[in-house]
Every structure is written in C-alpha cells, then in structure tokens.
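=== Given protein ===
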Amino acid sequence: MYKTDFLVIGSGIAALTFALKVADNFSDLKVTIITKDDKLESNTKYAQGGIATVLNEVKNDSFAQHFKDTILAGDGLCNEEVVKMVVEEAPIRLEELLEWGVNFDKSSNGEFSLGKEGGHSQNRILHHKDITGFEIIRALLKKVSLKSNIEVFEHHFALELITQHHVGQQVDRDSNISCYGAYVLDTKFNKVKRITSKITMLATGGIGQVYKTTTNPKIATGDGIAMAYRAKAEIENMEFIQFHPTGLYDKLSLESSCFLISEAVRGFGAYLRNIHGERFMNKYDSRMELASRDIVARAIDNELKVRGDEYVFLDCTHLDFQKFKEKFPNILEKCISIGLDIKKDMIPVAPVAHYLCGGIKVNVNGKTSIENLFASGECASTGLHGANRLASNSLLEAIVYSHKSFMYLKATFDSLKSIPESIPTWNDKYQKPYAENILITHERMDLNNIMNDYIGIIRSNKRLLRANNRLEILYNETLKMYEESKVSRDLCELRNLITIGYLITQFSISRKENKGGFFNVDLIEKKIV
C-alpha cells in the first residue's frame, strides 16, 4: 500500500494549481500527482485561446458584462451564483498565475493584449500567442518541481476509486459513500498499485475521444467521470457536448485528434465561407462569426448537410498577415505544413467534438457527492457553463474551483477520519493478459462511429435509441473482456469510453428541450438555431 495525504489524478491546470496550493499550506504532508501519460500531456496543454478575465484597466468592460455573456452562452441553464463568483474571482486567480511565472502577451505600451472570442461582448481574453495552455503548464510544472512534498508519478493509469465497497460494505447511490484513494496501474511495469489518501482530487480532463474526431488529445477518454460513476457519484448534464466550429479539415490525416483553429482567429476578423466563397452566418445569427459556439457549429453543420460538402472555409486572406503571424504562430506553422498560404488560401474547417459542459456534479467547494472526493476542470460540472460553455471560461473555472477546494480543505482537513487499514490489494491472479488487442481496437472504432453517426451535433429520437441498443452490445462484450483479462490501459480506456457514450446517450434521451449544445430535431420542427 502506498499512502499519501492528497492524491491528485491528472496533470492539467486544475490538478497542478490544486497540488501547489495544498503543498504550500500543508508543508509537512504528502501530495501525490498521478498522470497516465507524461506530465506534460493534458487537455490544458492544447488550449490555444486563453483565460477570460475582466481587468480594471479596461474601462469598457465589467463583471456584469462577463456575467451576462456567460449566462447568454449557457442558454438559461447556468447557476447564476456560480457565474458571479467565478467572474469576480478571475482577477485574483490571474494574479496567482502571474506570480507562478505564467507569461501573457502584452502590447507595446505594456498592457495585456486582450483577445475577443465568440459570445464575448468585449476583448477580455488573456493569451500567450496561440499556445496559452502550453505556457501555463510549463510554468506550473516548473513550480511543482521545486516542491519537496509533491511527488509526480507518470504513466500511472487510475483504474478505480477505492470506497467502502472495497472493504466489504454494501453501497448504493443513496449511501454515505467515502473515497479512500484509488487503484492505479503502473503501465511501464504492468503492476497495479493501491494508493490510499485522505483526499482524492479528480482532474482528469475531457471525453473527446468518444467521438471519431476531436480537438482533444488521445488521453481524453473520460476516465475520471467513468470512475466516479462506477463509484456511484452524482453525474449531470452529459448531453451538453460542445463541438468546436473550426477544426482543421485535413483529409490526409488519419489521427483522431484534430488540429484546432482557435476561435480567436474569428475574433481577429476571419470570415466563414461555403465552398463557393459565400459568407453564410448572416442567416443564423446577427453576431455573424462571433455567435456562440453552439450556434456557429450547428450553422456549419447545416450548410454541410444541405450542400453535401465535407467542410467550409475560414477566410483569413484579408487580415493583416504580420499581426496574424504574431498572434497565431502555431496555427500559421500548421497551415504551412499542409501547404496552405493563408495570404491567398482559405483554411478548410469543420465542427469537431471539443468540450463537455457536464460531468461529475460538484458543489461550490468542488466537493462531489462522495465524501473526500473532489473534482475540478472539465471532468467537473460546476454550473458555470450551463448548456454551452462561453469561450475561454474553462481555464478560469479550473483555477477558481481548485482554489475553492483548497480553501475548504484548509479549514476542514484536520477533522477528517482516518483511512481503513483493511483495504485489499488488487486481485487479478485468475485473469490472463488479453491476447487479441485487435478486438479492443475494433470495439473502439465501433464506439466512435456510433457516437459520430447518432449522437453528434444534431440528434433525433430514432438515432438515440439506435445508439443505446448498439452501446449495450459493446458494453456487454467489453465487460466480458474486462472480467476475464488482466487490466491494460487500452482495455480500461475502452471500458471508460463506452461508459461515457452510455451516459451521453441516457442524458440525451431524458432531455426534452433543446438547449445550448444539445439539439434533437424531434423536439422542434425544421429549426436549427
């Protein structure tokens, strides 16, 4: 048994800011970070846009405007108290990032260079070129490396949360369930470890890999949400999947992870055009290209289906090339690598799975319905995003909620009960290594096709029921593999993804009103926005 005081699962902005704060405050206690890949790999690393924050020096912006923009994007389902709290805490949390060494772009006069994205009424996005997330992770990992009481285990895959169930007690969703840590697979040595902890923080990121194409990295397989669901934590709002309108359409690439053309490019002035060169957003929203993501994604999806096309164009040819180069060097480099000259070529784009607005339900302190289990970042459902996330509110949400969890634990940690000594080791002595990995690969492809075909941007009752039937078959086949085999990362990721697909389907079937990122054609006739 490996014992720690704080177990942090994940290595993105939510995980690292929480770990740094508890390590500073509880200097005599142990903080353990586990991440299933190397520590640099997280959803945060790929965040291009930035962090939405109202700054004092920007006279034409206000908390009230940021609040209003968030509520409008969330389509009436945001928790208004949460939105107010997050928006007003943003400048304080920003100061902490600056103190930890994160660099944000500044203009020639020394003030922050603020971008504008879809759904925002003002320029309020702090960014570092078009690799904001990478810059944040760089600075935070450097800070983590200086903390003697933080230990980072790379290539450690969390399998299951440890609860009373593992010490022989019956639990159900109405029980007072407590978390005691997690069983974790060391993928380099293929050994399952039992890590016990008084506090477990889930910061496992998104679920994008449940779809065939996504802006999310390969690690985004919904592990934290699936584990929490199996442990009987409360899950909510899984039907609200945000599809980013402008994933780079690259027919030569077979990768599931699609390169993102940041919304900030449209904020910079780029136009959307169909393959005939015609702008079309005027048919869908008065804000044109700067409408919220759900509206722009559905508009593009409709244009593609009506015309039978595979992509539309993002037109940057009229923009100041030198300024574009300064603001979006990573995007420019990617375009050049596939033979696009943005001075004369338009960029082919199509909507791709991007962000989950629901997840593990938490309260204002980041507490889940399971005692001593917290969640922060994309895997958590805080009430901030409602039915559709406002651009660049996600990194902000992560740092605010990790701080709220830290503050709660600062006041309550000493009163926590001790962990049971009777937690068993992982028992797989009767299982054998799975010999037919090709079946895992095919099951995952089947899942991706089901989600893309039946539970994409536009859904219907018939598609949802068909998805539900097919997912049940996949679930039973995968469960049999899992029960008969020694665990592996590939098998467990498949199991988690099928669980995520099931949850998205069930929540979609239950929803009877179109809101934000959820749209069922049977709930409204011939209307797409």
The chain has 13 helices and 17 strands. The mean pLDDT is 93. Residues 461-484 form the longest helix (24 residues).
